[in-house]
Amino acid sequence: GQTNLKSPQDIQVHVVNTNFTLRWNYTGNDTNVTFSAEFRWFEDFETKEAAWQELSGCQNVTGMECDFSSAITKYYNIHHMRIRAERREEASPWSSIFEMVPYDIAQIGPPGVELQSTNGMIKIKVSPPEANQVKKMVIDHLSFKYILVIWENSSSAEFRSQTIFPTAIIDDLAPDTTYCLKVQATLPFDSKEGLFSPIRCVKTTRKVVNSLHCATNVSVLALNMDFHLHWNNQYEHHVSYNVQYLLGYLKKLHDDYSTKWLNVPGCENIIETQCNFSSVITTTGFYYLRVEAINEYNKSCLSNEVKVDPLITNEIGPPGVKVDISDVLLHIQISPPGGAENEVMRDSYDLSYRILYWKNSSNNEDEIKMKEIKQTIGTVSDLTPATWYCVKVQAFTEIYNKSSRYSKEECIRTPAGKILPLVVLATFSTALIAVCLVATSLGFALYQAYNKIKYVFFPSCQPPLNIEGFGQQFLNSSYLSATEEPIENCSVIEHIITDEVNQVDFKDHKHSKQSSRDSGNYSNDDDTSGNKASE
After folding, report:
1. What pLDDT does residue 480 have?
2. What angle, rounded to 10 degrees, do the helices at 506-519 and 527-534 form?
3. Mind listing the pLDDT tens digit for each residue in 227-243?
4. pLDDT of residue 417
5. Which segments of the chain have a pLDDT < 70?
6. Is this entry keyworded Transmembrane (predicted)?
7. Given this model, what pLDDT does residue 515 score?
8. Which of 121, 191, 441, 528 is the most buried (most CB within 10 A)?
9. Residues 335, 244: contact at Cβ < 8 Å?
10. Closest among 174, 178, 69 to 120, alpha carbons compared
């Protein structure tokens, strides 16, 4: 089972578009050696095992490379490759495993290029790198971007690089001059750069002078999403114009877009040298515009094209400003550029506002203060009474790095004196004193009520023992019997004055007492009872 064959080394895989080539080195001195390779691919990154398969196109190969393009169909899966040397029944150990994800190591091939020299310009038509292949690694051809490198075919050539669409026109070239160029396809989102196309050279022709009725100096003026196209007219006779536009994405396609131009409504057969084309503009794409001029002989001439990217081409106008004084605050109300009804300006730019305010006085040293806000309402405090303040506002957007001109200055005078703060202070002090008085009175009333309740229901002292339970004894008295006839008890209380004691005869006093007792009309008690009553 032993063998003297060595394993292949330095395995490499080269991929251009969907063309796969396996290469390796072999250090053995053996003759009549062939090489065979195997591969396996994994369904996903979590799969650990997969069966090895023969690599089609790389079996019994006598050289040091083989093409296995037909064997690979999964461009985004992990693949393992290995190879061994073979001679008759002998086979070397398998080489180390080469791991790859085809898309990651694939290189973009050169695009196809067609050239045409006409009227001093070079027309270029570019086709995708995999245009002629059945299997494609990049399915979305619109994701390709193309870079053109062009130079004069001379010893002192200066290279010029620019991005172009699949169908492009290169002008501003010298007549009767040979230019060479090459084109590269790129995938910006994947940071991939492809191979350049073979160098192609072409000689320019002389440019036919445009007729005088052609529109020149075509330009776009846009303010607050109101778009106007302007151009110049050098023709002295009658000429009419048609303004045409093309949706920008059509130039990204590899199809001929020359028939896709449309007329701008309201800008057909006009004689003015300007046109409002806002009706065809949205913020979701970009556009190209041109002017077709038609003279009295019905001959037409097309102007150069101008590109319009709405949110970039558009300029922001100054906002509207209103100021008002409330108490000791300066209120600033801002209207977005174009007015509150201009929803495109409000929703597309995420505007902020820069407020400048200052004292309008003869003192040039007064400082101009700045404040930035996101809202359309702002306030300024710490104002000086009886002073003129001026305000102006600028709208700006950080996303598009744009700013408007400042608005017209608005000035307003603050009220004289600070009467209102004194009134507020006096009102506050009076209210505070009133609250304190009410709180004190309420506390005193609650304290008195507490003492009364405590005195009545929870007395701190007890009645003397000689009168304790007096009321109960009185109610429980059994002197009166229900079966006896009630008899009135009467007693004579005599007031004895100290000064007259010596003048009253004790005997008379005793006689009166005796008579009262004998009568029986006032009492049926004995002497003891009478004494008690007197006592």
Report:
1. 41
2. 120
3. 999 999 888 788 899 99
4. 62
5. 1-3, 45, 47, 209-210, 363-366, 417-424, 460-535
6. yes
7. 42
8. 121
9. no
10. 174
Q: Which CATH superfamily is domain 9-105 in?
A: Immunoglobulins (2.60.40.10)
Which of 130, 175, 182, 189 is closest to 159 using CA atoms?
A: 182
Q: What does each C-alpha distance from 71 to 54, 68, 485, 528 come to in angstroms?
A: 9, 6, 143, 149
How far is 303 from 277, CA to CA, in rounded Å? 17
The span from the first CA to the last CA of the chain, in angstroms, equals: 153
For the beta carbon of residue 365, count every other beta carbon within 10 angstroms. Answer: 5
| pLDDT at residue 507, as a whole number | 40
Q: 3-class DSSP state for residue 518?
A: helix
Is 319-413 in the same CATH topology as 112-204? yes
Tell me: domain 319-413, CATH 2.60.40.10, correct?
A: yes
Identify the pLDDT of residue 467.
53
* Tally: H helices and E strands in the chain: 7, 33
Q: How far is CA 105 from CA 16, 100, 193, 194, 411, in A?
A: 9, 7, 12, 12, 67
Query: Cα–Cα distances in Å, from 240 out to 219, 259, 443?
Result: 18, 21, 96
Q: Dump the DSSP string for 61-124.
A: B-SSEEE-GGG---TTS-EEEEEEEEETTEEPPPPPPEEE-HHHHEEPPPPEEEEEEETTEEEE
Buried b (16+ CB within 10 A) or exposed e, 7-33: bbeebebebbbbbbbbebebeeeeeeb
Domain residue spans in the chain? Answer: 9-105, 112-204, 216-313, 319-413
Per the listing, tokens 């407020």 go with: 355
Within 458-505, where are the H helices?
Answer: 470-475
Which tokens sit at 511?
A: 């006689």
pTM of the full structure: 0.65
- CATH pick for 216-313 out of 3.30.565.10, 3.60.10.10, 2.70.20.10, 2.60.40.10: 2.60.40.10
Looking at domain 112-204, its CATH superfamily turns out to be Immunoglobulins (2.60.40.10)
Residue 408, classed as helix, strand or coil, is coil
- Among residues 234, 20, 47, the alpha carbon closest in space to that of 137 is found at 20
Residue ranges in 184-300 assigned as alpha helix (H): none
